[in-house]
Amino acid sequence: MAIQTNNAWPAFPGDEQVEIASLDTVDFGRLLIRDPAEIKKLLDVCMTHGFFYLDLQTCKEGLQIIDDEQSVYRFMEEYFAKSLEIKMLDDRKSFLHGFKPIGVFTGTKESHKDAYETLKVKFTIETWNLPEIHSNMRQVAREEMDAKSELLPDSVKAKIELFDRFMGLSNLVNSTLLMCLSDALGLTGSARLEESHRRDQKSNTCLVMLHYPPTDADSANIGHNKHTDIGSITLLFSEQWGLQVFDPETQAWKFIQPRPHGHATINVGDSLRFLSEKKLYSCLHRVIPPTSDVQTEDRYSIAYFLRPENAAVLEDADGKSVAASKWHDDKYVMFGAPHEEQDKATILTGGMETILGRA
Ligand SMILES: O=C(O)CCC(=O)C(=O)O
Ligand SMILES: [Fe+2]
User: Fold this and answer.
1) What keywords appear on the UniProt entry (predicted)?
2) What is 25-355's CATH number?
3) Which residue has the higher pLDDT, 244 or 145?
4) What is the mean pLDDT of residues 110-130?
5) Distance CA 201, CA 157 (A)
6) For residue 339, what are the β-bridge partners?
7) Closest-lying ligand 1 atom to the alpha carbon of residue 208
8) What's the predicted TM-score (pTM) here?
């Protein structure tokens, strides 16, 4: 469906008419109270598209995330405006911690590198997973542990209360989705999805803040290459255009319209697809400059990646058993490989290109 992008809000940067994906909206407040109809809707969208909007305006926890989302954007604007030299002090050479400069991974176009920088946050202990701890004590525990952490950037330490709350609530959203999906799939006992995302086990769950600065048409860096997400559920926020999803029906990329001030975008990742005996749909997506190869505005996005415990065993697209942590590490290595190598294996797109057609 071609949409008049000049009527869209937020405004589409540019005069071009582009295809926009029509995504369903799931109500988070209804999921929190385990509304059966909403749970069924959640399962349906995860089995058909694997990408949907989550309305966060219908409960107090959701409203708090929407508020905090704005504070995280303000933090990001300030952080990414620093010089590269300063930001590199936070480079931890890690997929889970600290700063990543532009150009580490492969871009959307042949022989181009990526056009985004990131700041990743993972706390030493995930205290929000311990509901029995009173929130004040939780805060103290967080501050004491992470004040000493060499992995956590100082600018994050300075906003620890904001990140603690935002990541705790993001975790609540993603684990609620996981529980509802287990219910909807009729899973019981050790087969429930929560059982491979246990609170006291090590995982690669983390928060990633992404910044796509303006670029020229002749830049050697472009976009965020096509991929499926590594983990189970991604909670994503952005106020700017650029995210696209591959539509198998038309075999074309479609833009996802940002819906700021109330909605998150959710997508299913490879691990959840593999854990659900491939019943759930891990969708193929990418980020490109909305105006023909030129990124005219700064784009900021916030992704909270829920991933299974490191030791969980997945059956990948080729039917091979792989530990969740190995799938994570191998996929990150593949993000940096040239297109030719990426196209030879199923890892970059979690085997979804076999199902969807080649993007
Ligand atoms: O920046 C975005 O909107 C999406 C980023 C993304 O797909 C990812 O980091 O996995
Ligand atoms: Fe992604």
Assistant:
1) Iron, Metal-binding, Oxidoreductase
2) 2.60.120.330
3) 244
4) 83
5) 24
6) none
7) 9
8) 0.95
By DSSP bridging, strand 299-306 and strand 285-287 are unpaired
Query: Alpha helices, DSSP H only, in 121-215?
Result: 135-147, 154-157, 160-184
- Residues contacting residue 201 through CB under 8 Å, at least 6 positions apart: 309, 310, 311
Residues in the chain: 359
Per-residue tokens: 187: 């899973």
Residue 168 near residue 186 (C-beta atoms within 8 A): no
Tokens (6 digits) for 227 = 């991929």
| CA nearest neighbour of 121 among 86, 83, 171, 62 | 171
Question: Which residue bears the tokens 């109330």?
Answer: 262
All structural domains of the chain with their residue ranges: 25-355
Report how far Cα 86 is from the mean position of its chain's Cα atoms: 26
Helix (H/G/I), strand (E/B), else coil: 20 = strand
Who lines ligand 1 at CB under 6 A? 210, 224, 229, 236, 238, 243, 285, 287, 301, 303
Closest ligand 1 atom to the C-alpha of 299?
Answer: 1
Please tell me the number of the ligand nearest to residue 236's CA.
Answer: 1
- Quickly state the pLDDT bin for 217 (edges 50, 70, 90): confident
Model confidence pLDDT, tens digit, residues 277-330:
999 999 999 999 998 889 999 999 999 999 999 999 999 999 999 999 999 999
Query: What's the pLDDT at 3?
Result: 55
Other C-beta atoms lying within 10 Å of the C-beta of residue 356? 18
First-to-final CA distance of the chain: 19
ipTM over 0.95: yes
> What's the 329 CA to ligand 1 centre distance in angstroms?
17
How many Å apart are CA 214 and CA 262, to the nearest integer?
26
Query: Residue with the nearest Cα to atom 6 of ligand 1?
Result: 286
pLDDT of residue 1: 44
